[in-house]
Amino acid sequence: MSLNVLKIAALAGDGIGPEVMREAVKVLHAVEKKHGIRIQITEAPVGWAGIDAAGKALPDETLALCRQSDSILFGSVGLPDRDPTIPKEERPERAALLRLRKEFGLFANLRPVRLYQPLAHTCPLQPERQGEGIDLLVVRELTGGMYFGQPKRTESVEIEGVQSKRAIDTMVYTTPEIERIAHVAFQSAQARRKKVTSIDKANVLENGVLWREVVTNVSKHYPDVVLEHMFVDNGAMQLMLKPTQFDVMLCENMFGDILSDEAAALAGSLGMLPSASLGARNGQQTFGFYEPAGGTAPDIAGKDLANPIAQILSTALMLRYSFDLENAARGIENAVGAAIESGLRTGDIYTSKDPNARRIGTTEMGSAIAAMI
Ligand code: NAD
User: Fold this and answer.
1) How far, in Å, from the CA of 45 to the mean position of ligand 1?
2) What whole-number distance in Å separates Cα of residue 255 and Cα of residue 239?
3) Does residue 250 share a domain with residue 293?
4) pLDDT of residue 133
5) Are 197 and 273 part of one and the same domain?
6) Active site residue 261
7) What would the pLDDT profile of 67-124 be if each residue is shown by its tens digit?
8) Of 230, 245, 267, which marks where a domain is finished?
9) How do strand 358-359 and strand 71-76 relate by DSSP bridges?
10) How many folded domains does the chain comprise?
C-alpha cells in the first residue's frame, strides 16, 4: 500500500488499558523495523483518563487526533467504582466508545476466535469437540437491526381494563445495509478458508427472509467462497457441538452480539481476543477501530498480570484491514503463536498441569512477542 506513514491514534484508556497498550506499541515498533513500514503512534487520553485530564471521556483534542489518524488503536474504558458517580450519558463507555463508533460510521465488527492448541485446557469444550483447533471469525453488523430501529419506546396501555405497559423495539434492515456487511464477510472469507455461514431467522422474521435473499445475491460476486445459511438457534447449538465447521459467521447486529460472545468463550480467556470495527472505505483505506474484546479488568490492573495478547492481536487486525499489510499482520500472529508454543503464559492462560508452561507478567509477554517478530 502506498501510504507513507501510518498514522495511528493510541487511546489506552483505563484499568489495564495502559499496560497492554504499552506492549502493543512495543510490538508495532518491532514490526516497523522488520517490515520497513513507517508508523507514527500518537497517544491521547480517553475514558476516565480523559475525564481526569480534560473533563470529558472523549476530550476534544482526542477526537481531533482520531480524525487526523488513519486508524484508532483502543484499549478499554470504564471503572465500575467511578462510573456510577456521573450521569449515564457522560460515562466512558457511552460518551467515548459509542460516540467514536457513531463518529466514524463503524458498521462492521469482526471478532476472530482462535484456540491455540497448547491452550486447549482453557476451552470449555471436550478435546474431541475441538478437532484440529478452533479458528473462526464472527462478522457482525453494528449499526442496524433491533438495537437502533424505530419506533423504540415504552408506552402505557390498558389491557382488559388494567393499566399496563408495552415496550416496542423494531427490527429494520435495508438492502444496502445487508449488502455492505455481506461484502465484508465474503472478502474476509477469501483470505481465510473460503466459507461463509450466514445466520438468520428466515423461518420467522421478515428481516431474515430479506437477509437471506440479499446475502445470496452478494455471494454471486464471490464464486470462490462457499455460502451456507443457518438459523440462529441452530447456529448457537452448532457452536457448542462442532465449532470447527465454521470459518466466517455473518450475523445481523443482535444475533452477532450474542453469538460472538458465545464463540469467544471457546477461546478460554478474554485476554486472547482482539476485535476490529470497520467504517467505510476511503480510496484504498478502511478506517478502523481496533480493541481487545475484554474490558478494563480493574481486579488485575497495575499488577503486571494482564494478558497483552488481545491488544497485540488487535494491531495485527489493524495492519490487515486498514493497511492491507497481510505479511506484517501474519508476522504478529505467528509471533504470538510462537510465544505460546514456547510455553510462555500470563496467569489467565496458565495451568500448573502443563510441564512446559512458564508463568510470566504483562511486560515479559510483550517483550517476548516483540522479540519473535
Ligand atoms: P472485564 O473484561 O474488564 O473483566 C472480566 C474478567 O476478565 C476479569 O476477571 C478480568 O480480570 C478478566 N480479563 C479481562 N481482560 C483480561 C486480560 N487482558 N488479561 C487477563 N484477564 C483479563 O469486564 P468487567 O469486569 O465486566 O468490566 C470492567 C470494566 O470494563 C467496566 O467498567 C466495564 O464497563 C468496562 N468495559 C469496557 C469495555 C470497553 O472499553 N470496550 C468492554 C467491556 C467492559
Assistant:
1) 18
2) 13
3) no
4) 84
5) no
6) yes
7) 999 999 999 999 999 999 999 999 999 899 989 988 999 999 999 999 998 999 889 9
8) 267
9) unpaired
10) 2
> Which residue among the candidates 7, 194, 195, 257 is catalytic per the annotation?
257
- Tens-digit pLDDT profile for residues 232-265: 999 999 999 999 999 999 999 999 999 998 998 9
Domain region containing 170: 124-267
Regions in the chain scoring below 50 on pLDDT: 1-2
pLDDT of residue 46: 98
Contacts for 218 with CB less than 8 Å, ≥ 6 apart: 178, 179, 182, 183, 186
Q: Which of 233, 242, 299, 303 is catalytic?
A: 233
Q: What is the pLDDT of residue 281?
A: 67
Which residues lie with the beta carbon below 6 Å from any ligand 1 atom? Answer: 16, 20, 76-80, 83, 93, 97, 270-271, 291, 294-300, 306-307, 310, 348
Residues 345 and 364 in one domain: yes
Specify the pairing of strand 274-282 against strand 285-292. Answer: antiparallel
pLDDT at position 282, please?
66
pLDDT of residue 131: 85
Q: Is this structure's pTM higher than 0.90?
A: yes
Does some domain include residue 119? no
Going along 37-194, which residue ranges are E strands? 38-43, 71-76, 108-114, 135-141, 149-159, 162-170
CB 9 within 8 A of CB 64: no
Statement to judge: residues 42 and 137 lie in one domain: no
pLDDT of residue 283: 62
Residue 2 confidence (pLDDT): 45
* Amino acid, res. 345: R
Containing H/E element for 128?
helix 127-130
Q: Give me the CATH number covering residue 72.
A: 3.40.718.10
Same domain as 63, residue 32: yes
* Contacts of residue 156, Cβ cutoff 8 Å, sequence gap at least 6: 163, 164, 165, 166
* Residue 354 and residue 303 share a domain: yes
Of 14, 26, 173, 201, the active-site residue reads 201
Helix (H) or strand (E) holding 229: strand 226-231
Q: Determine the pLDDT at residue 359.
A: 97
For ligand 1, pick from 296, 304, 305, 314 the residue to mutate: most ligand atoms within 8 Å of CB: 296
Q: Are residues 324 and 207 in the same domain?
A: no
